[in-house]
Amino acid sequence: MRIxxxxxxxxxxxxxxxxxxxxxxxxxxxxxxxxxxxxxxxxACTVLLGDRAVMSCVVLAAGVDAEVTTAAGLxxxxxxxxxxxxxxxxxxFCTPGQIVRAEAVLRExxxxxxxxxxxxxxxxxxxxxxxVQIVDAIVATMEKRRAEEPECDRR
Length: 155
Ligand code: FES
Ligand code: FES
Fold this sequence. Notes:
Blueprint: E1 2-5, E2 8-11, H1 21-27, E3 46-49, E4 52-55, E5 68-69, H2 77-85, H3 95-108, H4 114-120, H5 131-148
Antiparallel strand pairs: 1-2, 3-4, 3-5
This protein binds FE2/S2 (inorganic) cluster (2 copies).
């Protein structure tokens, strides 16, 4: 099995048809997506599949037909800086998934309310419960990107 990940090819000759994308990524040394619940309920394994944020533990690797982007290949330096500035992580286990989901949400649009951000991030659980700081970081990044938009896009 071959999957394009963060601009490289991950090959997994041992992959089984029933393997999840998360299993193939982690066997291939892509450890930014974390293995936690394994059933699509926590978001620790979130990656982009094309432009879409997905929980890679419930995606069949055999069906992947688009580039996969993990937190390691995402870029989004402004969002990372905002997470650091707002101390939006404690143990850091959920952070790669939070950042990938947040970047997908911001790419969909930077004209949202705080409540809409909270709703959009609801599938990503933080067992350290630092939700306020996570949303603060995303909102700060959204406001920064909004301010950088060309004036004609702001209406
Ligand atoms: S490990 Fe995939 S959603 Fe929890
Ligand atoms: S920072 Fe520890 S799980 Fe979120």
